Amino acid sequence: MRFPFCPPALQTLIYSIGCLQFDFYLTKGGPMPINLDAFKSAYEKWVAESLPDYQAGNMKDIVKKYPFIAPDDIPWTVYSGQPSNQTFALVTSGGFYLKESQPPFDTESIHGDTSFREIPKNVRQQDLGIAHAHYDHSLAEQDFDIVFPIRRFVELENEGIIGRFTDTQYSFSYVNDAVSLVTETIPELISRIKAAGVNVLFLVPV
Q1: Of 131, 125, 126, 165, whose CA–CA distance to 145 is shortest?
Q2: Could you tell me the pTM of the whole model?
Q3: Residue 88: which H helix or E strand, with range?
Q4: From CA 46, how far away is CA 119, in angstroms rounded?
Q5: For residue 190, which of 182, 41, 37 has the smallest C-alpha distance?
Q6: Mind listing the pLDDT tens digit for each residue in 100-143?
Q7: Each residue of 31-56: pLDDT tens digit?
Q8: Which stretches of 22-165 are DSSP H helices?
């Protein structure tokens, strides 16, 4: 399954979170339905072949060659419950970080940056920086809600439309290294989301 118009980072993020929420990995201890060994081999070949074009800024050409993960099944859960009784959280791949207290994402490496940043729900526009080399930041620099709708969810919480909006939201940036993302970063993210009692996680692509 692929997500059209979605960068490799978010395609992997969407699928990985779906798998981990479906007990394939965290609760039953079974294997994830992704052949990471096969992907790693294809990815390493892609890096070796694509590095010169990446360094030259020819992103359109190398993205076409990226070994997208395309599993046979779909990690889908039908939505249930009432939003007014549930806890919500946000994840974006917009590359946001807190300028005064967090380092920016690595935007130079072909592997991208597999880490994430925790962003408080009371964040202000002037608090945020953007470190992401693969989309136009101009509108997000004026209003981060277009790709990270924190203030819209705060409004929904204040109006009682949703039960609770967690104090902490999460931002990723551009990622190509799906193996590290899936095996290291996503389990940590899921652990924090579960600890916060999140029922519904919104993923916002850029």
Answers
A1: 125
A2: 0.83
A3: strand 87-92
A4: 33
A5: 182
A6: 999 999 999 999 999 999 999 999 999 999 999 989 999 999 99
A7: 456 778 888 999 999 999 999 999 99
A8: 36-55, 59-65, 138-142, 150-158
* Domain locations along the chain: 8-65, 83-204
The tokens of 184 are what? 């290291």
Phi-psi region of 87 (alpha: psi -120 to 50; beta: other; left: phi over 0): beta
Give yes or no for a contact between 95 and 146, defined as CB atoms under 8 angstroms apart: no
The residue written with tokens 């029922």 in the block is 199
3-class secondary structure, 148? coil
Cα–Cα dist 94/171, whole Å:
6
pLDDT value, residue 15: 43
Classify residue 195 as exposed, middle or buried by CB count within 10 Å of its CB (0-12, 13-18, 19+).
Answer: exposed
